[in-house]
Protein: ALF repeat-containing protein
Amino acid sequence: MKLTRLSAAVAAAAMAPAVLFASPASAADGAQPPANSAPDKSSETKPQAEDGEAAKSAAKQDEDNRFAILRMLNGQPIGRGLEREANKALNGTPEDWRHFLEVGQYQARLEDDRVRVAQIMSRGGPAVQDAGSKALDDGGAEAIKEFLEKGQYAAQRIDDELRATQIMSAGGPAVKEAAEKALRGTYEDVKRFLETGQYEARKKDEAAEEAAKKKPAEDKKDAERPSNGDGHRKDDAGRDVAKPAQDSGKSSVKAASVKDTPAAASAKGGEMASTGADASVPWALGGGAAAVIAGAGMVVVARRRRAAEQG
Structure:
């Protein structure tokens, strides 16, 4: 019985060092993660989040592009080419929207600008047509833009001055004077002449021409008026029409002989005889001359009567 216990004690003592030395190793092994633990998903979550943000940003940009095309259509008037291409892009994909904004709209605008140049040429004169033709032949956007912003106006000035010169050469005196004055002034003066001045001057020339046509008819009518027997013409109311003076503004006086009247007869034998004056005295015709003759006769008669009474 004692041997059995001793053997058990010896066996336990022999096994004790193995147990003691094995315990730290087991503890160390327990600190490590199990071999079948779940994988770390943090590296996979980050790329997925970035892809989501990129998708949202792309969708927002596409929507912005779409609204930009809509604003273009609903804003200020645009050409037919640009309107056509914008509607075409809206009916397409987001990629079509982007392509229209980056490339398509500029191609469409150039098409519309070329149409505008052709329209301006159809209304312009020789200088405008020549400048527009050169811009179209060049074909580039810069040449077209330069004509629309500057070239057409410089060419229009040349055409306006040429037109004013042509009107001056074919117009009357008033038109020539107004055109010459405008051409010597500023370009604004030339435009004012073409817009209003030429018509005002033309009215003056027409009025002068009409007056010139009426004058011969009036002179002929005056010549055909009946005479009253003393060289005077009568108007439509029967009044005497005075004959215009012919000698440098001085009124011509027609001499006439005084007929034998009682007063004239007295003057012959009386006062006028004493002065040696001729019986035929020139007097100016008219109301004033008649009054002078009558007054002189009355004076002579009165004197002779007084002389007879005293004798």
About this structure: The chain has a mean pLDDT of 73. The longest helix spans residues 187-223.
